[in-house]
TrEMBL record:
Top-rank taxon: Bacteria
UniProt xrefs under InterPro entries: Thioredoxin-like_sf (IPR036249), Thioredoxin_domain (IPR013766)
Name this polypeptide is given: Thioredoxin domain-containing protein
Family of this protein: Belongs to the thioredoxin family.
CDD domains: TRX_family
TM stretches of this protein: none
Transcription keyword on record: no
PROSITE patterns registered for this protein in UniProt: THIOREDOXIN_2
Record-linked Gene3D superfamilies: Glutaredoxin
Record key words, sorted: Redox-active center
Ranges where the Thioredoxin domain occurs: 81-186
Keyword Oxidoreductase among UniProt keywords: no
Amino acid sequence: MIAPPRVRLVIEDGLDDGLEASWDPCLAALERVFRRLGAGVTESETRSGVVGCPRCGRRNRVPALGTGVPVCGNCRHVLPWIAAARDDDFAAVAQRATLPVLVNLWAPWCGLSWLARPVVEGLALRRPGELKLVEVDVVAAPEETRRLGVRAVPTLLVLRDGEVLARRYGVAPSDELRDWVDATLR
């Protein structure tokens, strides 16, 4: 089978943006558009996660930042909200959220953190529209970890309006974790 030849295309639009050429004209145009858009948009505003809709199964991109409740673009059903945060955007992602926030502080080198993640994410997936899960890698967010006084991983925090309501260390079964969150949010 012979592969089609790759053609280099130079777009002459008068812009000196460092993009010499691309073999795909559509890709070259998209690169220029995203570079222009990216100039005024911070990285935390563009970060998002992909969540499947519990009703129709369609995959939806859910931004880390936002107010209200995320809904499916296809069937308008409420979606679970799972986001990641670092030092530079923790306040915007977790502390200014309109929903109660469950913060999972974990470390990539910690085996207990890897055991706790499916349990914590399962809780968030079963409570769309009621709870926002924010996962914080303690290695990537040392300042926020220090500010929150984290002494062990995994650590779970429940926040409402930026205030820490409860703190829990270690791994727990899903029923116990659900009861803990329910008791905290009452």
